[in-house]
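Late entry, written up from scratch paper. The run itself happened at the end of the previous shift, but nothing got recorded in the book at the time, so transcribing now.
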Amino acid sequence: MCYEYIKADSFQWMTSRDENSITAIVTDPPYGVKEYTKEELEKMKSGRGGIWRLPPCYDGHQRKALPRFSVINDDPKERENVYEFFNTWGTLAYRIVVPGAHVIIASTPLLSDIVSRAMRDAGFERRGEIIRVTKTLRGGDRPKGAEKEFEEMSVIPRGQWEPWGVFRKPIEETTVAKNLRKWDAGALRRPDVDSPFVDLYETGKTTSKEKEIAPHPSLKPQSFMRAIVHAALPTGKGVILDPFAGSGSTLAAAEYCGYDSIGIEIDDDFYDIGTEAIPKLAKI
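Output as recorded:
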């Protein structure tokens, strides 16, 4: 099997892609959109300014920058921007994926409702949500400026899970079986013949080894990526697309599973990381 890792704007690339030419999409998109603009990424990389959270050093180690996703919830205009982003993207995705294709998208508890609405309006069916159990640094804080006065309170729950929306382009045939025979899509592949694909994964954090190979701020563990990528191609045939490929974890998982895949990444630094990281991650 093989993969293509392309440096491009995914919206432009998807516009020129042939209709019904992608069998599934698995992606971890720019959650808040704003964090992954060129300007904000440059500020994050320089360690100064911007909306990325820059943790201090602990025990002599510099912690990695983290997206400050909650900024989206402060402004209705920002929420509408998220909807427009995913609705436009979903419309492009709908055209290029085959009937019955699954699209699995990482999100956050604060934004998954917006993503779901945008994808439904683009024509996709919502087929559920995969929950990745993982402890985060988001939420749980006391009221800002009054931490002592309200020390027994949290403004928002500390995140312990991450939702991945599961969407499907409606099948074209009269049954899923007929759609699978024609398009190799319409269902989710089981991990083995006796075990159904499930919607809860306790994967823990991304390993230090994987982070060393691919130092991307939103890198997901290969154990999890392989599980959902394996499920995305029910017959094992076709092509998986990651239009926001980052440092290539989806492509690495597809390579491990023996699937053909395509990844699109616009950022120069992440693309360079992925070029080196994909074959190394696939071998873990």
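The beta strands are 3-7, 22-27, 57-58, 61-62, 97-106, 125-133, 161-168, 200-201, 239-242, 260-265.
(Scratch paper discarded after transcription.)
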